[in-house]
Design brief:
The protein has seven helices and six strands. It is α+β, with helices and mostly antiparallel strands. The chain has a two-stranded antiparallel sheet with strand order 1-2. It has a two-stranded antiparallel ribbon with strand order 3-4. A two-stranded antiparallel ribbon has the order 5-6. The chain starts with 11 loop residues before the first strand and ends with a helix. The relative contact order is 0.07. About 4% of the residues have low confidence.
Amino acid sequence: AGRVRLPGVRGLIDCNSTVATRPQLILRSLQDVVLLQRVPWWTVPKAMAVVAGVSMLLLYWRLVGWRRESRMEHRYRMIFENASELVGAHSLGGAFLEANPAWVNLSGYSLEDLRKRSLREMVAPSGALAFEAWWRSVASGGVVADCQFELATRSGQLAQVEIRGRLVNAGEVTERVES
């Protein structure tokens, strides 16, 4: 019988004895000896450490990306909310999706009330033809020049407005914001 040196295997302590004893290994063949001497590099603890490291890296990238996106969103939200011009977004049917505080102040409606209305409903009868021609042009996807007409406010007063718009989809807006 030959001796096999196994790094890391020091000895076993018998519960009834304070003296360390050497373990006895019964090996069937020479391949068993080689397997015991060469522990594979890719062990479960190392694999778990790699998975944990990659997970942390992905989480970090996601958080950093979210913060960057959040800062950009905050910046554009501040511009939107502090603009003195009327800035809004409408569905193809004309319903308000979003309106800045300038819209709220001019119209006299709250944002929730504006979202229940369409821009078409607010146009004064004197500006209805000009508005409809402008709206058809926007809906067809054309680049539109300014259009002037009167809007009826909540109090019944008429406000002269100049409006410019174009049809955009959400993906196009996202691309412009990210560039």
